[in-house]
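Suppose you are handed a protein chain with no further information: no name, no annotation, nothing but its sequence. What can you learn? This example shows the usual starting point.
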Amino acid sequence: MNYDEYEHLLFERPSDGVLLITINRPEQYNAMNERLHIEAGRVWLDVAADDETRVAVVTGTGKAFCAGGEFEMVERQFGSFERSAEALQEATDIVYNMINCPKTIISAINGPAVGAGLAVALMADISIISSEAKLTDGHVKLGVAAGDHAAIVWPLLCGMAKARYYLLTGELIDGVEAERIGLVSKCVAPAEVVPTAIGIAERLAAGSQFAQRWTKRTLNHWIRDAGPIFDASLAYEILGFFGADAVEGLGAVRDRRQPRFPSAQAPTAR
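A reasonable first move is to predict its three-dimensional structure. Written in structure tokens, the prediction is:
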């Protein structure tokens, strides 16, 4: 398999059957532009077709896993039907291509993971997180609905009560708490994140591939059953980019201030 066409993903083979995929935009904390947003969905099709890979590990370069969508990409969605339609398809591809990839995917969450980056981190079959990493879905703070991945998988991972709390408040979650509530598989010391993920990948790569792949496929029917919930959440998120709240939310994040959402200043539509 030739991965040379990827611009923002690096590929290594640390051991037999294991592919290490590294999100590589360190100056932007690995935030996604349009190109990376496409690559983050497409890569799982190539992993599925790669005869040399039995298990994939995904992590980030430098201090972050992935800081979500970069401001400029978000801004280009405002009021643009064409760009919003593209973003909807790209986000859909990340979730469904990860679910449907027959091979085990392990995320090594080495630092902050937000928005679309968090989708990659939590849609993985096994998630290893640094005790110092911080997670947040962050959509509500931007003024749009929690789409991307949260509605399809958070209630299954950590239960409805915790999913409601963190998705409605946008509150940060550290690695220790993420493990405690069941949002991730395992929390380890920062220096151990990638080695732990690769160690698990090596064990799985030496195991029965039929057993693992059929187990993954079966378990993921729980997530597939929630597909209509995901589709609705993503549609509501995209709709939000046509409203004034998203413009104010992005401005507040950029200026590092509290937002004054227009919908909070006047009666909202029912």
